């Protein structure tokens, strides 16, 4: 049996005394540093939505999830602001959102002779939105509103939801039998008396 020992051979030097590994590390760090420095220096885009479109977006969010008896306007406004901020950050998103809002308003003008926001009948506004329910811009607004309302811990108590119970030991001791719409049944003593009776 013969054992061969391999000796460490130093790698050949690349151009200008840099090894390939050193070149890759340096260029990667330069790219990360540059992108971090320029992250705050993005060109400021003009606001994607004007005042009328913002009002229309707010009205659409309220019409998609109409909990006006439970939720304040601030919850809906925060959702509309989030959608608007997403449009401000992405030009393609802004273009699609503006075009979609214009289509909704054009449909409202054609059917009712008024802007979408100015239509008083809730069912009429819902009918207009139903014609656009499969469009991409509508689905974007819908899902933003969905998560903005139902994934918001500040809103949960208004719907009677206590939140996750896993951290508190589950629902057995925390709301399992808190229902109020079923009448109280007889107590254990009353049941025993009925059985013996």
Short précis:
The chain has helices at 20-38, 51-64, 73-89, 91-112, 122-130, 136-150, 156-159, 188-196. The protein has 197 residues and is mainly α. The N and C termini lie far apart (97 Å).
How do the strands and helices of this protein lay out in sequence?
Elements: H1 20-38, H2 51-64, H3 73-89, H4 91-112, H5 122-130, H6 136-150, H7 156-159, H8 188-196
Order of helices and strands: HHHHHHHH
Percent helix range: 55-70%
Average per-residue pLDDT, rounded, comes to 81
Q: Segments where pLDDT lies below 50 for 5+ residues?
A: 40-46
Structure, explained:
The longest helix has 22 residues. The protein is flat. With 197 residues, it is mainly α.
Features:
197 residues, mainly alpha, 55% helix, flat
């Amino acid at each position: 049996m013969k054992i061969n020992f391999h000796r460490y051979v130093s790698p050949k030097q690349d151009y200008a005394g840099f090894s390939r590994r050193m070149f890759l590390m340096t260029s990667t760090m330069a790219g990360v540093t540059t992108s971090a420095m320029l992250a705050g220096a993005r060109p400021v885009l003009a606001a994607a939505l004007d005042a009328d479109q913002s009002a229309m977006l707010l009205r659409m969010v309220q019409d998609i999830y109409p909990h006006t008896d439970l939720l304040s306007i601030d919850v809906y406004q925060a959702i509309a602001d989030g959608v608007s901020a997403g449009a401000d950050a992405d030009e393609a998103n802004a273009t699609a959102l503006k075009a979609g809002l214009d289509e909704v308003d054009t449909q409202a003008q054609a059917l009712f002779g008024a802007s979408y926001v100015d239509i008083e009948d809730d069912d009429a506004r819902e009918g207009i939105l139903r014609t656009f329910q499969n469009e991409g811009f509508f689905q974007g607004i819908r899902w933003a509103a969905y998560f903005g309302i139902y994934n918001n811990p500040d809103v949960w108590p208004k719907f009677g939801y206590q939140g996750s119970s896993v951290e508190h030991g589950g629902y057995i001791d925390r709301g399992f039998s808190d229902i109020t719409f079923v009448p109280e049944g007889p107590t254990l003593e009353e049941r025993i008396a009925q059985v013996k009776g």
